[in-house]
From TrEMBL:
Keywords: NAD, Oxidoreductase
Gene that this sequence comes from: udg
Binding residues annotated for NAD(+), in chain numbering: 30, 86, 121, 158, 269, 336
Name assigned to this protein: UDP-glucose 6-dehydrogenase
Pathway: Nucleotide-sugar biosynthesis; UDP-alpha-D-glucuronate biosynthesis; UDP-alpha-D-glucuronate from UDP-alpha-D-glucose: step 1/1
GO biological process: polysaccharide biosynthetic process; UDP-glucuronate biosynthetic process
Keyword Zinc tagged: no
Catalytic reactions on record: UDP-alpha-D-glucose + 2 NAD(+) + H2O = UDP-alpha-D-glucuronate + 2 NADH + 3 H(+)
């Protein structure tokens, strides 16, 4: 099938590469000429395990093409996927300006029947909005070309995106049109081989499904973080509590790891957008509002522990913190809404110096937060430790899980570790002579 994918970020490029891998001809369109140039040169501008190989192979075999021109990209394509960003506006609402722009251009330039697929995460009602914009443009041209707008939200997670796309738990297709459903069934056939995996539903239900899924996952994270905060105060250990509740099959173990709060380009904005959609329809989403506010507070918990520790010794001013992990989670270079940024801001505002290292996000961090006064980003995991007053671990990269503790002790001024991901065992840290502070567990002093 000939498919056009508009927006070649994490979702667009992964979808494009995976569709191409199954033998489809894909035209990727991006407004950013730098992105297109990089991809045409056989390089990938984002970090996603396994993606570069797929892109290289399918580009070399002619199934993956890149352009900045939507007109060129969609000319021979029956299906057009919209995979552009849908960031939050300052008031938390979803900003649809990129989706609107693509819809408008499709309406202005389409020459034959199309199935337009919303894959970006968009509020309920957006398929109708896209349909309206395309119709408006067609009317201006005096044309009546048939088209349909389908919702096909994406559930991949950064860091394991290729795997998720290749072996999805489910594929959701929202349409009332049997022909559009059949085309998407054909396209997704190789990925969702068992028929139950492809769930066809109404457009609004599909749009709502994406928000419900992300809000459920965010709720689990905020729930366990709240439990962790209570554990600390009542003398319990959240790791033990997690084992105790996760073993209940109605609860399960996944997504109940305590930490420094969720970040990234999806959960924070999608939680806010659903609160806002509910408000638009006269409903106050109290539970989801609490998920958001628990998370906002959780992003400051580690910095608060650091401040509290140094308080009796004159505070953090003039001290140096070594910080491991800037990305919002492991296996990605994405630092959007990362908790590390909040921690860095909290501490540098009080005059602490932060020397930060991330295995892949350093470049992106330099671009996006490099101007924070007091922050230095260093490309060496060991060098950040040298003569620092303490180490804070913020992202759960594998390479931080079992470091050389003797070396850490030698490099730091004093053996103090603040662990925002509960990567280490408090007993072991105590035996090794560290002062150790983690989330939802009793400190070792
Ligand atoms: P991204 O920011 O990585 O990529 C978006 C791309 O769209 C950019 O390269 C940008 O240049 C391009 N773009 C913007 N306007 C354009 C236009 N008019 N024409 C062509 N290209 C244009 O975004 P992303 O992380 O891939 O997210 C895309 C959507 O998918 C969002 O709605 C997001 O919520 C959703 N989503 C993201 C993930 C994820 O893990 N990142 C997972 C599921 C769903």
């Amino acid at each position: 099938m000939n498919v056009c994918i508009v927006g070649t970020g994490y979702v667009g490029l992964v979808s494009a590469a995976c569709f191409a891998e199954m033998g489809n001809n894909i035209f990727c369109v991006d407004v950013n000429p730098k992105v297109v140039e990089t991809l045409e040169a056989g390089k990938v501008h984002i970090y996603e395990p396994g993606l570069e190989d797929l892109v290289k192979r399918n580009t070399a075999q002619g199934r993956l093409n890149f352009t900045t021109s939507l007109e060129e990209g969609m000319a021979d394509c029956q299906v057009i996927f919209i995979t552009v960003g849908t960031p939050s506006l300052p008031d938390g609402r979803c900003d649809l300006k990129y989706v609107d722009a693509v819809a408008r251009e499709i309406g202005q330039k389409m020459t034959g029947p199309k199935i337009v697929v919303d894959k970006s995460t968009v509020p309920v009602g957006t398929a109708d909005r896209v349909r309206g914009i395309i119709n408006e443009e067609l009317e201006k041209r005096g044309e009546s070309i048939p088209f349909d707008v389908v919702s096909n939200p994406e559930f991949l997670k950064e860091g394991d995106a290729v795997n998720d796309f290749m072996k999805p738990d489910r594929v959701v297709v929202g349409t009332e049109n049997a022909e559009s459903a059949a085309v998407l069934q054909q396209l997704y056939g190789p990925f969702a081989r068992s028929r139950e995996k492809l769930i066809v539903m109404g457009v609004r239900s599909a749009e709502m499904t994406k928000y419900a899924a992300n809000c459920m996952l965010a709720t689990k994270i905020s729930f366990i973080n709240e439990v962790a905060n209570i554990c600390e105060r009542v003398g319990a250990n959240v790791t033990e509590v997690r084992a105790g509740i996760g073993s209940d099959s109605r609860i399960g173990y996944s997504f109940i790891y305590p930490g420094v709060g969720y970040g990234g380009s999806c959960f924070p904005k999608d939680v806010k957008a659903l609160i806002d959609t509910a408000k638009d329809y006269g409903y106050e989403a109290r539970l989801i509002q609490s998920v958001d506010s628990v998370n906002n507070a959780q992003k400051h918990v580690l910095a608060d522990k650091i401040k509290e520790y140094f308080e009796p010794q004159g505070g953090v001013k003039g001290r140096t913190l070594a910080l491991w992990g800037i990305a919002f989670k492991a296996n990605t270079d994405d630092i959007r809404e990362a908790s590390a940024t909040e921690i860095i801001k909290d501490l540098t505002a009080l005059g602490m110096k932060v020397r930060a290292y991330d295995p892949v996000a350093n470049e992106r961090a330099r671009e996006e937060i490099g101007d924070i006064e007091g922050l230095e980003i260093i490309d060496d995991q060991n060098a950040v430790l040298e003569d620092a007053d303490a180490l804070a671990v913020v992202t759960d990269w594998n390479q931080f899980r079992d470091p050389d503790f003797d070396n850490i002790k030698r490099q730091l001024k004093a053996p103090i570790v603040f662990d925002g991901r509960n990567l280490y065992q408090p007993e072991r840290m105590g035996e090794a002579g560290f002062a150790y502070f983690s989330i939802g567990r009793q400190p070792v002093k």
